[in-house]
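Recall that a protein's primary structure is simply its ordered list of amino acids. Everything else, from secondary elements to tertiary packing, is in principle encoded there. The following example makes that idea concrete.
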Amino acid sequence: MAEAILMPRLSDTMTEGVIAAWHKHVGDQVKKGDLLAEIETDKATMELESYQDGVLLHIGTPDGGKLQVNDLLAIFGSAGEDISELIKLHSRSSGAQPVAAAQPASTNAPAEPVTNTPTATSTIDVAAMDEVVLMPRLSDTMTEGVIAGWHKNVGDTVKKGEVLADIETDKATMELESYKDGVLLYQGAKAGEKILVNDLLCIIGKDGLDVAAIVAAVKSGGDKAPTPAPAAAPAQAVEASVASPAAAATSPAAVEVVNEGRIFASPLAKKLAAEKGIDLKYVKGSGDNGRITKTDVDNFVAPTVATLSSAASATPSSASPATTYVPAVTGEVSFTDVPVSQMRKVIAKRLSESLFTAPHFFLTMSINMDAAIEARAKMNEVAPVKISFNDMVLKATAMSLQQHPKVNSSWMGDFIRYNNHINIGVAVAVDEGLLVPVVRFANSKSLSQIGAEVKVFAQKAKDKKLQPSDWEGSTFTISNLGMFGIDQFTAIINPPDSCILAVGGIAQEPIVKNGQIVVGNIMKVTLSCDHRVVDGATGAAFLQTLKQLLEEPVRMLV
């Protein structure tokens, strides 16, 4: 008997999946455990294995198509089995229409020709063609992507698995691999430009394909299809200047063009050039075969011209006081507009929602770190991994959360969730913004384990190799700016956490000890609390426990 397979939920926030590639086709015999398809979720591209044996009789959408969670993904059964009623049943339940391209190969119904008529049907037909590559959703909050750089230009031969482009999402810059072999016939955007999720990214096919017709059909006939062209250099920064005779000397035309035609540059160099508004055709590469590297972009200096004019000096006469002539200085009023990165957009959106939705209040406490400094020195004599003060703060925080579970909670609208597990997010600064990898079950880990894990996360964040599973699921967050010389600051709560701890640097200050004024090593911490969940007394009690643990570190070893 035929059995329907629905689109599974492959991550906690997944609502839909995109079929990156089918590994089995209609009519194929499939065994349990065989790789059925690759599915792009909101987190990553994942392999889906078959749950059963049988013949693949129907697929819910072809390569590149997307399905909502619990939509009809595939039907398994026996060869020749009638599945029409099963398809109708799931089409009604999901509200979707069956996809003609997914019917068994034995169907004799004639295929509908693709036209440029701006209808929903023609758009679906074109999107179903394997030549069309749409912008995939590469993270759970991604709504659009920026082309950091193309690895292939129009006219290049592309093989399955080769990197097509670097896509900048709100989380990181990720490499997009080709799903098929062919020739890159069209690019939907130039380097530095953005494309909405599910908009036309590129077309891969055979030479002679009617690209203009496909582009027009994808755009529902609303726009004239652009002529395919090689990937252009990053968009220039916008510059406004006061008109002057010297202004023409600052234009790119006055600079020597180093690279003609195709430009060879590393993805990082392309991305950095786009951020700085540098046209790579003026940058001389120092790599192999003249390849432009990050260092070349960093060292590139665009010429600037400033006109300095002075009035002619006049000799003061004996009959009049001396006249002072001040040279007249003219310059340019200029600015540079840099597009907001995807990561920065999401940081702005989430933290604005947090600050203006959650009623914040702040509690600051000074902690004497004399004993912590002494204990750390002794621990690092035997520790397999060097322990930092941040590691000690993280461990003390985890133990304090055990004693004060109300701080380890989340506002869920109609209820408050008190988390029994303790997952602490550690804010890590990167060039594009901020990432918060999570140390899971921190209360159960030793200082050495915490130290090793935080170091790995910090390196992965700088190398842009953090995965979605690394930054999800925090119940509390720590932000430490002490290493940057900051004495004290307040932080915005990272939802869905109800609190965040802002940690300042350790500074020597006069303190009273045994009736005497002595020098102490003081660290100030500020707890930001969501007043909907945590009250002042609750937050204060948490900080008192944290203070006791850090001022007597031996308590953390019990």
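Residues 27 and 548 are 68 Å apart (CA to CA). The first helix runs from residue 84 to 94.
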